[in-house]
Every structure is written in structure tokens, then in C-alpha cells.
Amino acid sequence: MTVDVITSSALEGIPHGFLGRRGGVSQGVVAGLNVGTGSGDDPLAVAQNVRLACDAVMPHASLARVYQIHSALAVTAEPWSMDARLKADALVADRPGLLLGIVTADCAPVLLADREAGVIAAAHAGWRGAIDGVTDAAIEAMEALGARRTRIAAAVGPCIAQASYEVDPGFRDRFLAADPANARFFCEGGPAATPHFDLEAYVVARLQAAGLTDIDALALDTYPDPDRFYSYRRATHLGEDDYGRQFALIGLAP
């Protein structure tokens, strides 16, 4: 099966892609293009999937990843080894021939680019990183390399959608304490009328508040589409003992 590369019109002309589970070599409960080194998958299969994914976006590129910790930390990427990865949740670069990669399994992947400056970024925006400002940190790190936020385009890739994202009242209270206007990202749903959170809309709002105007939200829900995407929450609800992770990649052509 061919690797499924989802692209954004906001990043046209920049090598990039949001990848799901189609086209990989992993088997079993993580069957497909699993790139999660933290899963229980065969490391050789994960390594092959990583190469397949990178070659589908920018062949022969070097890859930079971080050790993701649900933070608001952003770092400038180098083609370091997996063992030398820094702990962070966003990485930026102005180096041609380098792919930036972050992994998700319901969290929001965000890819950003200032074409004129030749500066790119990739951010992993789970709810913790999102509320703590991971996208703001990525934008600030891009500016340190010469980008201007008025020129930055951003795309928010496949993530868990509001209909699938039931949370508890304490979760909602944390967002309301940060800003009462965050109430607009919650609705009541299900038989128990529990809060549901719109992660994608929240991330888009954070990008807009940071001054970005060219933002593409792909509106792809990871939870209800097991043939196309991995989902941590779906795997948990099904009682599966492992879950896969999917890539978001962006690079600058050599």
C-alpha cells in the first residue's frame, strides 16, 4: 500500500506531509506506518517505516526529531541521532535538506513555514503543550532564525476532534481559569452531558492570537478512522495493549 501523505494548501511548495498508518510494514495492533519508537513494535519495522515516510515527503533528507514530553519547549534542530534527541515538543530549522518530524496519536501536529526567510517548524500540541504555549514557543524560535510571524503559514493536521474528545469538568476548569473565553472550545455531549473539547479550534485560536493569518486546519479526526489513523484514545477504549504513532514532517528542499 502506498504511503498516504496529506498536504496543506497553506504550505504549498514546501516539502511537508501529515502521514497516517497507510503504507507501512508494521503488523498486529500497530499494523501500518507506525513510527513510534515508544511502542512495543519491532524496532526494525519502525525504522523502515520512518524511512518510508521521509522518502515520501523529501527523499534522501536527514531527519531531526525530539523526545516529546508534552511541554512548551522549542529547540533549533540539528541532524542529531535518536540517542541525542533533546526533550522538547517543537523544533525549528533553517537548514536545507533537513526534515523535522513530530509524532502524534490524537494530539495536534502543527507545521509552520516562512517561505521568504527559509525557516520551518514542527510542533506537537497536545492539550498540555497547547495551553502552555508550544505554538507560541515555536513561532518565537522561528523569529530567532529570521522569520516574521506576519509571513508564517501554518497547518494543523489530523487530531482528535471535539465529538470524540470527552473530558472531565476539572479539565474544562483548567482552561477556563487560564481564560474565561476558552469556554467557546467546550460543548456538552453524550448521555451524561459531559464536556467535549475542541483541540483543533483551540490550537488555531492560539496561532491567530500570535499574529498568524494564513492557517489551514485540516479537520481530520483521528479517533473514528482506524484504517487511516492511529489513536491513543481509541486504542484505550478498545482495550488494546499498544498503539501506533503517526508522523508530521516538514523540510526545506536542498
Please provide a written account of the structure.
The chain has 254 residues and is an alpha+beta fold. The strands form three sheets. It has a six-stranded mixed β-sheet with strand order 4-5-8-7-9-12. Strands 1-2-13-6-3 form a five-stranded mixed β-sheet, with helices on one face. Helix content is 23%, strand content 24%. The model has no long low-confidence stretch (mean pLDDT 95).
Keywords:
alpha+beta; 6 helices; 254 residues; CNF1/YfiH-like putative cysteine hydrolases; five-stranded mixed β-sheet; 13 strands
Uncertain runs with pLDDT below 50, 5 residues or more?
A: none
| Main sheet properties | 6 strands, mixed
CATH topology description: CNF1/YfiH-like putative cysteine hydrolases
How many helices? The count is 6
Number of strands: 13
Number of domains: 1
The succession of helices and strands, N to C, reads EEHEEEEEEHHEHEEHEHE
Q: Tell me the fraction of residues in β-strands, as a range.
A: 15-25%
Structural class by secondary-structure content: alpha+beta
What is the name of the CATH superfamily? CNF1/YfiH-like putative cysteine hydrolases
Average of pLDDT:
95
Q: Specify the overall morphology.
A: globular
Topology:
Blueprint: E1 5-6, E2 16-19, H1 43-57, E3 62-65, E4 74-76, E5 90-93, E6 98-104, E7 108-114, E8 119-125, H2 127-132, H3 134-144, E9 153-156, H4 169-178, E10 186-189, E11 194-197, H5 199-209, E12 214-217, H6 232-237, E13 246-251
Parallel strand pairs: 3-6, 4-5, 9-12
Antiparallel strand pairs: 1-2, 2-13, 5-8, 6-13, 7-8, 7-9, 10-11
Brief account:
The chain is an alpha+beta fold. It is built from six helices and 13 strands.
